[in-house]
Amino acid sequence: MKKMVLLSAAIMIIGSIAVNAQGGGFQRRTVEERVKAVMEKFEAFKLDAAQKTEVDSIFTRSFKAQDAKREELMAGGGGDREAMRAEIQKLQADRDDKLKKVLTEEQFKEWKEKIEPSMRPQRPQGGGGGNN
User: Fold this and answer.
1) What is the pTM of this model?
2) SS3 sequence of the chain
3) Fewest C-beta atoms under 10 Å: which of 45, 62, 65, 131?
């Protein structure tokens, strides 16, 4: 009986480790979560209420457009990463044009050089494919 309990516990532990090691279950953050994260970064700029509203609106529209474009490209076969990247870059350029109208030149420069790079999802280091 004791051996069966230990064996069952060991199987459950190994199974949970195997499932978690696959990295499955990655969930993309919602538009609202991403906008909230960006707006927290913009607090350093001490924007007035009108600027905050406009920046929030710009990012909300931008993230929704990016998600829609990503869905559209994935539904159409979804294999062309370069096409997806080019479309997302166009949307980001459009977003930046709108931000330039709301932010000062210094604020926009700080956004592009310091804040935007920190907002990109970080990929784990190493090739980790296990195809030895």
Assistant:
1) 0.67
2) CHHHHHHHHHHHHHHHHHHHHCCCCCCCCCHHHHHHHHHHHHHHHCCCHHHHHHHHHHHHHHHHHHHHHHHHHHHCCCCCHHHHHHHHHHHHHHHHHHHHHHCCHHHHHHHHHHHHHHHCCCCCCCCCCCCC
3) 131
